Amino acid sequence: MCAQNIHAARHRLLADVVHDQRFFHVYGINLRAGQQFFAVLYNVGEIFIACVFRQAYRFDDAFALRFATGNEILVVEGIHALNPELTAQIPQNQIFRVYASALTTILLDNHNYIPTTDNRLLRRIIRDHKYRGVSAQETIRRWPSVRAGENRWIFPYQENADCMFNTAMLFELAVIKSQAEPLLEQVPECCEEFAEAYRLRKFLAYIRPIPETQIPPTSLLREFLGGSSFEY
Known about the structure:
The chain is an alpha+beta fold.
C-alpha cells in the first residue's frame, strides 16, 4: 500500500509550509490514523482503509486489507516510510526498511561530475509532465521547495534503513534525454526558470541519446518514460 492513503485532507495541511514542502511534511499525513492503522492490522489482521484520489487528495475508493495466515508481508511505499513515528506501534524486529534513491555515479570527464539532483530533477520533469500535466517551468520552480522538504523530512531518516539500493542507471540520461529536451525547450526565456532549463539543456548536449525502444517494459525507467508493464 501507499502511505499516501493516509494523507491528511488538503485543507488541513499546514498553512505555513510553502508549496510542496507541506506534502513532504510528516504531518501532511494523518499520523495518528497511520499509527492506529498499523497497530490494528498487526494485532487484528484486517482493516478497512480508503484510497486517496491521486490529484485531489480526497477519498475516492475503499478496500479491505487482510492477513489470511499471519505470515504475509505488507509492503508500504511512501516518503515517510522510514520515519519511526509512522510505525511506532509495531515491534521494530517486525519491520524491514528499504531506502531507494538515484545516486548518479558517472562523470562527464575527470573534473566534472553529474550531480544526483540533476538526474532526479530530469526524472521529475518528465514524470510531472506525463502524469500530472505540470510543465517543466513549474517543476523547476517547485524544485527548491521539494529539496527543502526532503532535506528536513526524508534524508535525516535514511540511516534507519536496513538496506539501500541505487536506482540510477549508467545509461539513464542517454535514454531520458529524448523526452527531457523538448520539455526544457518549452521554458520561456522571459521567466526565472529559463536559466536552470538552459543549464540542463547544455548539460544534456554532451550525451548521445539512446532510443527508449531498447528499454524493456519492466525497467524502472518506464515509471518515468511510460510504457511500463506495471500500473502506477
